[in-house]
């Protein structure tokens, strides 16, 4: 069966927002709805995902509540959840969503650099671009005529800020009382279309040099991110999206896949709130069929971000059956203790632009 598949590494990410991707997942979580906003809920999922061998975790976020109806009406902020997770783990990558359109770029750069320091080099950033009237109203702004350009500007200045401290800027020279070499801390002097940033950052350069940046292909920013997230309702469309992302300059491409091992549970939850399609490939079926799908995806993408319908029931299936079978097939290797996310993904550590210039 598996001889038809070309063997290549498949990195596996897990989206861990709330109780799962299904809007009514909280009804099947097996715990009181209020506990989703507690540290214990984060600990349980993070521990199982890291022990199970996932490459990284992602944390969805939005300027608006997850739901305005009967389902999840609140969430903890994504960077905070990732920072908390950093002290519970030593292998798995941690990539929160942060919206370039609603977050001040300087603070965004500092938060993500701090996450990389806290996790010892395991931070990522899922680039968001909320641009609805309701989302922008949260910061007293109006929708952007060109949100893509705003996103490009924010990514550009955030990357410059991460480089604003050279790697050896901190010297901690006790005899002379010098903490840093000021000649190795740089102003970025960025002028965008809607904002300017002088810098430097208040946080030393991240351990990875640059935090790993993930961007959805819908934003058309493949040449500016490290990993492009592609969505398609079937395998052929995913392959086409992946090919297009690589042609546009993507180093790595991850597919977005929604999963559930229990069709009966999905049908029951749909009676409360339908799980509406959002353009992602969705697989509902036994774990063996999911393994076959993921093996097939190794011919098209470098990784997959899984969106389980209900974390409490689907995550044990993924860690107990799916990931071990992929490891046995030689297409997935868990990250190693104290390995950076860049290293786990096979990405080089970038040279500091200012050190090169100097």
From TrEMBL:
Keywords: Flavoprotein, FMN, Monooxygenase, Oxidoreductase. It comes from the Bacteria. It holds the Pfam family Bac_luciferase. InterPro entries: Diverse_substr_monoxygenases, Luciferase-like_dom, Luciferase-like_sf. The keyword Oxidoreductase applies. Signal peptide: none annotated. Residues 33-261 form the Luciferase-like domain. GO terms for molecular function: monooxygenase activity; oxidoreductase activity, acting on paired donors, with incorporation or reduction of molecular oxygen. This is Luciferase-like domain-containing protein. The lineage of its organism: Bacteria, Bacillati, Actinomycetota, Actinomycetes, Pseudonocardiales.
């Amino acid at each position: 069966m598996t001889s038809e598949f070309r063997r290549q590494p498949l990195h596996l990410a897990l989206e861990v927002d709330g109780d799962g991707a299904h809007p009514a997942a909280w009804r099947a979580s097996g715990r009181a709805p209020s506990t989703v906003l507690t540290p214990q809920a984060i600990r349980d999922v993070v521990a199982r995902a890291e022990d199970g061998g996932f490459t990284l975790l992602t944390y969805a976020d939005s300027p608006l509540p997850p739901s305005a109806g009967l389902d999840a009406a609140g969430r903890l902020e994504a960077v905070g959840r990732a920072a908390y997770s950093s002290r519970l783990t030593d292998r798995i990558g941690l990539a929160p969503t942060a919206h370039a359109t609603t977050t001040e770029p300087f603070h965004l750069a500092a938060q993500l650099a701090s996450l990389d320091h806290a996790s010892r080099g395991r931070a990522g950033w899922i680039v968001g671009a909320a641009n609805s009237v309701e989302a922008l109203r949260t910061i007293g702004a109006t929708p952007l005529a060109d949100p893509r350009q705003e996103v490009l500007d924010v990514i550009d200045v955030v990357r410059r800020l991460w480089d604003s401290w050279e790697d050896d800027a901190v010297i901690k020279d006790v005899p002379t009382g010098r903490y840093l070499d000021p000649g190795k801390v740089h102003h970025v002097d960025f002028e965008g279309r809607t904002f300017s940033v002088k810098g430097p950052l208040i946080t030393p350069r991240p351990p990875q040099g640059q935090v790993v940046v993930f961007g959805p292909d819908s934003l058309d920013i493949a040449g500016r991110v490290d990993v492009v997230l592609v969505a398609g309702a079937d395998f052929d469309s995913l392959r086409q999206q992946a090919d297009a992302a690589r042609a546009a300059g993507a180093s790595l491409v991850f597919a977005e896949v929604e999963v559930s091992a229990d069709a009966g549970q999905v049908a029951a939850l749909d009676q409360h709130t339908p799980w509406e399609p959002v353009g992602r490939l969705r697989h509902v079926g036994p774990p063996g069929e999911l393994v076959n799908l993921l093996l097939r995806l190794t011919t098209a993408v470098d990784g997959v971000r899984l969106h389980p319908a209900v974390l409490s029931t689907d995550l044990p299936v993924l860690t107990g059956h799916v990931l071990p079978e992929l490891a046995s097939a030689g297409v997935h290797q868990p990250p190693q203790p104290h390995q950076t996310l860049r290293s786990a993904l096979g990405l080089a550590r970038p040279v500091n632009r200012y050190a090169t210039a100097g």
